[in-house]
Amino acid sequence: MKRNILFTKMSGAGNDFIVIDNRDGAYSFLGEAEIRQLCTRRIGIGADGLLMLEGSENHDFAMRYYNADGRLGSMCGNGGRCIAQFGWKLGDAAKKELKFEANGNTYFASVLADGEIKLNMLVPKDFRDAFSVDGHECVFVDTGSPHAILYVENLDETHVVEIGQKIRHNQEHFPGGTNVNFVQILSSEKIRVRTFERGVEDETLACGTGAVASALMSYRLGKVSAKSVCVAVQSGDLLTIAFDEEMQHVTLSGPALEVFQGEVSESFWHK
Q1: Is the pLDDT of residue 1 over 70?
Q2: Does residue 133 sit in the same domain as residue 237?
Q3: Would you place residue 270 in the very low, low, confident or very high pLDDT band (cuts 50, 70, 90)?
Q4: Is residue 119 part of a domain?
Q5: 104 has binding-site annotation
Q6: What average pLDDT does the structure give for the chain?
Q7: Which residues are catalytic?
Q8: Is position 215 within any domain?
Q9: 154 labelled as ligand-binding?
Q10: Distance, CA of 223 to chain centre
Q11: Do 198 and 131 fall within a single domain?
Q12: Which residues make Cβ contacts (< 8 Å) with residue 203, sequence separation at least 6?
C-alpha cells in the first residue's frame, strides 16, 4: 500500500538526491514509476537520483541507488558521500568512520574535520586510451560507473548535452551506455569537469565517479602531475581526488549537505 514518505533532500557538490531511511522496509513499495515521479522536477521533489538506506548484517548500512529515470544505477560517488553523511547522523555522532555496502561492494567513508565526507572508491578498471567516437577522440575508464572522457580547450563553449547524448548512446563502443565527461586542464593539479549522466539523460552539476575518472585519466595521460587533484564541477564546488601511483587506493572528498527534510503526501500517488 502506498503511503506518506519521509525524506531528506541532499546535495553532493551539486548532485542532488532524495534520501530515504528504509531500514524497516516501509518504503519498499517504491518501484521504477514511483521513483521517476519523485525525481521529476517541478511535478515531484526533483533530484538526480534517489538513495535508499537499508539495513545490513555486516555493515553500518546498505545503499541502494536509483537514477532519476527510476532504474537501479551503478555506483554514485556523490550519492555515496551523501548517504554516508545521512547514515552518520542516524547513528553515533562520535563515530566518524563508516562502512556500507552498495552493489555487492564495500565502501569506507570518513567524516572530516570540516564536515566534508571522504569516500574510498573502487579500484578503477577497463582503461581505454584514445579512440574515436562519432568524430570525437575519447578515453575511457570504469570507476564504479562507466565514463568516457573528452578533453576540450574551453568548457564554456562545449555543447555538453548535444555531444554527450550521442556518445552516451553509441552502442558500438558502449553497449550498456556510458556517462560522458568533458575535461579542461587548468593546472598540473586542477581540472574542470562537466558531465552528461546516463539515467538522468542530461548534464548534472557534478558527478563523483566522473570526477574520479577524469582525475585518474588525466594523471595516467600526463596531463596533471599531482596525485591529489582538485576538480571544479559545474555547481562551483570543488572535489578532491587522491590516489597512489598504481591507482589502487582512490578517495573522493567534498561537501555533502542536507538541504531540507520533507514529507510526500499519500495523495501525491493519486495524480
Answers
A1: no
A2: yes
A3: low
A4: no
A5: no
A6: 95
A7: 76, 207
A8: yes
A9: no
A10: 23
A11: yes
A12: 160, 161, 164, 194, 195, 196, 197, 234
